[in-house]
Design a protein that fits this description.
Blueprint (H helix, E strand, L loop, with lengths): L1 E5 L2 E5 L1 E5 L2 E4 L2 E2 L8 E5 L2 E15 L2 E13 L7 E5 L2 E3 L7 E5 L2 E6 L3 E3 L4 E5 L3
Parallel strand pairs: 3-7, 6-7, 7-8, 8-9, 8-10, 9-11, 10-12, 11-13, 12-14
Antiparallel strand pairs: 1-2, 1-6, 3-4, 4-5
Length: 129
């Protein structure tokens, strides 16, 4: 179980979903009162899905992370996909997935799948299998 920090409030959980202005952690509504949302995860997490936030920071491994709007920063390994429609992506190694942003830069370690950005710089190394 990971520690999840949303706007300086700590929560524990394995799965985060932010959709329709609602923050759901392991099935529980944890929506903050603030209009600006910053998410920090300390530890490993399975899945993170966010409609809108300013920034996501994960200090640990993650299976998959997706944001419609907001930057994504992951310091641990990724075992699935990382995707943002509008935001920069910075992560370590992506062991079995793709990295994609429509509008933003990508800076990753080794990536097993594809890396795409329609309007941004891309830096990564192709993972040799």
């Amino acid at each position: 179980m990971s520690t999840i920090r949303i706007n300086n409030m700590n929560y524990s959980g394995n799965s985060i979903s932010i959709s329709g202005n609602k923050v759901i952690i392991d099935g529980k509504d944890c929506t903050p009162d603030s209009k600006e949302i910053n998410i920090s995860v300390d530890g490993n997490i399975d899945n993170l899905e966010v409609d809108y936030c300013n920034k996501i920071s994960i200090k640990g491994a993650v299976k998959s992370a997706r944001s419609t709007s907001g930057d994504i920063e992951i310091t641990g390994e990724v075992s699935g996909n990382v995707q943002s429609v509008s935001g920069d992506i910075e992560c370590g190694d992506v062991l079995s997935g793709d990295v994609q942003t429509t509008s933003g830069d990508v800076n990753c370690g080794n990536v097993s799948g594809n890396v795409k950005s329609m309007s941004g710089d891309i830096k990564y190394k192709k993972l040799s299998i």
